[in-house]
Specification:
The longest helix is centred in the middle third of the chain and has 18 residues, at about 130-150. α2 (about 45-50) crosses α9. Helix content is about 25%, strand content about 15%. By secondary structure, it is of the alpha/beta class. It is built from nine helices and ten strands. The chain has a seven-stranded mixed beta sheet. The protein has a three-stranded antiparallel beta sheet with strand order 8-9-10, with no helix packed on it. It is globular and about 65 Å long.
Length: about 325
């Protein structure tokens, strides 16, 4: 697919045939020890591999059976699963330490502004409250790293349409304000997200929502199956969620024209829009709707790539 920067890359990244002098210097840097909470289909790990980081170990918390099957298929046993985030204890954290990179995004459905039945951040019957499990683990590792003089970097993501009171609460716990990054500047999908992080330079990725779409930005046309003569009706689509009907809004209704008919996106096109190779979620007997559900909960690889790339001078690469 022309124009896509990620679809041609294989899981695991590319290996260099000859180390450069700069790479030799970077080899003295520490290897990454990662903990991924609400891991989903392993977007964070996939991105780190694409960036070429030398990962000593990665632990993850995920309970969705379909997501676990996808990560098992794509990454074998490289991701060490810890089970539910609610069951990760301080004893477990001591056993897997040191951790120098923590990332994750707790479920956003009960925080999203488009969900009129959302339960908010504190309702014990909702998923929004899972933020506090991320915070609990973040706080323990943060204090532990400071005591042991270990570098500790972290990233927390959630939907930018949440109410200000919830954003302010999360900001109060992290003692920092989030930046807003919209994947429309990296892909043909509008996907505004808050990112709280201590990664140096993250504020440089803040996108100005009122700016006009630049002609050089990715457009939907470049992500479609060319052999089937599929043509885009729009340059950008709305946020792709876990529901097949998510693009039936006024801005991106039936975004593709094929054989004179207006239609939706193939699941393989959605995979590429998110920054994955085609068939990344084509595992077992997963249905199209199940695959989109997994993708709709994932991060945009293109966005996370730019964020995690800022750690290139901090940790070793292969």
């Amino acid at each position: 697919m022309a124009g896509n920067r990620s679809s041609k890359k294989k899981v695991g990244g590319n290996k260099s045939t000859k180390p450069s002098s700069s790479r030799s210097r970077k080899s003295k840097l520490p290897r990454l020890r990662v903990l991924s909470l609400f891991d989903g289909i392993g977007t964070g790990y996939y991105t780190l591999l694409q960036l070429g980081f030398d990962i000593e170990v990665i632990y993850a918390s995920e309970i969705d059976k379909d997501a676990l099957m996808v990560t098992k298929y794509n990454f074998s046993d490289k991701i060490k699963q810890l089970g539910s985030v609610t069951e990760i204890t301080t004893e477990m954290l001591d056993q897997i330490s040191p951790i120098n990179l923590l990332f994750g995004g707790s479920p956003c459905s009960d925080l999203s502004g488009v969900n009129y039945r959302k339960k908010g951040l504190f309702n014990p019957e909702g998923t929004g409250i899972l933020f506090f499990d991320y915070y609990r683990i973040w706080n323990y590792l943060n204090v532990k790293a400071a005591k042991e003089n270990i570098p500790f970097h972290w990233l927390f993501e959630n939907v930018a349409s949440m109410e200000n009171k919830n954003k302010d609460t999360i900001s109060k716990f992290f003692e920092c304000q989030p930046v807003v990054v919209d994947s429309l500047h990296f892909s043909p999908q509008r996907r505004r997200r808050y990112f709280w992080s201590n990664i140096l330079g993250i504020t440089e990725l803040t996108c100005f929502q009122d700016m006009d779409i630049d002609i050089d930005e990715p457009k939907l046309e470049d992500y479609l199956e060319k052999n089937l003569d599929r043509q885009a009706n729009v340059e950008k689509v709305g946020t792709i969620t876990s529901k097949r009907s998510c693009l039936q809004d006024s801005k991106s209704r039936n975004p593709v024209c094929q054989d004179g008919q207006y239609t939706g996106l193939f699941i393989t096109e959605i995979e590429v829009i998110f920054g994955f190779p085609q068939h990344f979620t084509d595992v077992g007997d997963l249905s199209i709707s199940s695959r989109q559900k997994l993708l709709g909960r994932a991060w945009s690889v293109q966005v996370i790539r730019d964020l995690l790339e800022m750690l290139s001078e901090k940790f070793a690469k292969k």
